[in-house]
Amino acid sequence: MDEIIVTALIGGIILLVLAMRASRVAYHTQKSVGASIAELPEFSCDHEVFGVGYYGLAIDEKRLKFCLIDKSQKPPLLKVVQIKDVLSCEIIEDGNSVVSTNRGSQLGGALVGGLAFGGVGALAGALSGKKKTIGTATNLALQLTINDTERPIHTIRFIIGETKKDYLYSGILHTARRWHSLITVIMKRAAVEIDSSTKYMQAPLHSVADELQKLADLLKMGLLSEAEFAEQKAKLLGRGHQADR
């Protein structure tokens, strides 16, 4: 019996030492990544999150940029993308989409958000053949879909391995939801900015073209002389050039 107790104690100490060493390595790696992010040109980190594992995310609110972090590479891979290139953001639990925000191309950049309780995600889980104990979760992740054919998916995992849905799980889910909400807000800001700039650029051009057509019609009907037409045309074109600046 004494030998069993001693063996168990030694095993526990070894596991504790390994855990502390892994934690120390993770801390120094994260610190190194933070220093590397600070050196990125045209990027200032306002928020950053690291999941369980190699992947994380940094956000530059002012410039509307994301930095995708991959610590599995040596040195860590830091890829800066425009927020307008983030096509979707969702929380996935055991293959089911819990909440998602998508940039619908058919809506001209508008954002579509929604909750998914079951649906396609549940069907996929049901067809996978994997059994899961009720009241537990084995995987919880924040997943971004990027407009990039080489690395279109960036996944930040918050849970890896079977976890009971208790108050600790609730705290982890709350963290994932908070990050999803923050990303959604910034995606919305980017969409509004793009929409506003597009309207500003297009509206004057359309109005000038319409006015020129009206002037041409008046000239054809004899209601304007050539000199009057030329004068009004010059004024319209000058207004259009000022609007483009």
CA gyration radius, whole angstroms: 28 Å
Instruction: Give start-end ranges of low-pLDDT stretches.
Output: 17-29, 117-131
| Order of strands, widest sheet | 7-6-5-8-9
Written as H for each helix and E for each strand, in order along the chain, the element string is HEEEEEEEHEEHH
Return the structural class.
Answer: alpha+beta
Average of pLDDT: 78
| Total DSSP helices | 4
- Which percent band covers the strand fraction? 25-35%
The first-to-last residue Cα distance is 86 Å
Give a written overview of the molecule.
This protein is about 50% helix and about 25% strand. It contains 4 helices and 9 strands. It has helices spanning about 1-40, 120-130, 165-220, 225-245, and strands spanning about 45-50, 55-60, 65-70, 75-80, 85-95, 95-105, 110-115, 135-145, 155-165. The strands form 2 sheets. A 5-stranded antiparallel sheet has the order 7-6-5-8-9. The radius of gyration is 28 Å and the shape is elongated. About 15% of the residues are buried.
Short synopsis of the structure:
This protein has helices at residues 2-38, 119-128, 167-220, 226-244, and strands at residues 47-50, 55-60, 65-70, 77-82, 86-93, 96-103, 111-115, 136-146, 153-164. A hairpin with a 7-residue loop joins strand 6 and strand 7.
Key words describing this protein structure:
single chain; about 240 residues; alpha+beta; 3 domains; five-stranded antiparallel sheet; four-stranded antiparallel sheet; 9 strands; elongated
SSE topology:
Blueprint: H1 2-38, E1 47-50, E2 55-60, E3 65-70, E4 77-82, E5 86-93, E6 96-103, E7 111-115, H2 119-128, E8 136-146, E9 153-164, H3 167-220, H4 226-244
Antiparallel strand pairs: 1-2, 2-3, 3-4, 5-6, 5-8, 6-7, 8-9
Helix pairs in contact: 3-4
